[in-house]
Amino acid sequence: MVGPGIAEALVATAVGLLAAIPATIAYNTFAARIDAILTMLDRFTSQFEEDIARLVEMHGPETVVAGESAATEGRSGGRSMPEGRGSRHVADRAARAD
Predict the structure, then answer these.
(1) Is pLDDT larger for residue 62 or for residue 43?
(2) Which of 4, 59, 80, 95 could form a disulfide with 63 if both were Cys (CB 3.0 to 4.6 A apart)?
(3) Domain segments of the chain: what residues?
(4) What is the per-residue pLDDT across 12-24, written as a single tens digit (0 to 9) for each?
(5) pLDDT above 60 for 84
(6) Per-residue three-class SS string for the chain
(7) pLDDT at 31
(8) In angstroms, rounded to a whole number, what is the distance separating the alpha carbons of residues 66 and 92?
(9) pTM for the whole thing?
């Protein structure tokens, strides 16, 4: 047998471990998920930067900002986008409002 003070310390240690072990497992699980999301975000950001750089190189910065990029034309099949979509139409409506 152990003394009463040591028994109390052993019980407190066991209770602490019962709380700490699941908390550590949960923390590591969520940290791994966050790392995976950050990796996906980094890949997306890199690809997006490459796409924007390629559009600027192909069409010039003024054209890309105005919404006349090849990507926009490709998605709409070469047709102009319907009213209310795309930065070009938003700018047209803002100019008409003035």
Answers:
(1) 43
(2) 59
(3) 1-59, 60-98
(4) 999 999 999 999 9
(5) no
(6) CCCHHHHHHHHHHHHHHHHHHHHHHHHHHHHHHHHHHHHHHHHHHHHHHHHHHHHHHHHCHHHHHHCCCHHHHHHCCCCCCCCCCHHHHHHHHHHHHC
(7) 98
(8) 10
(9) 0.51
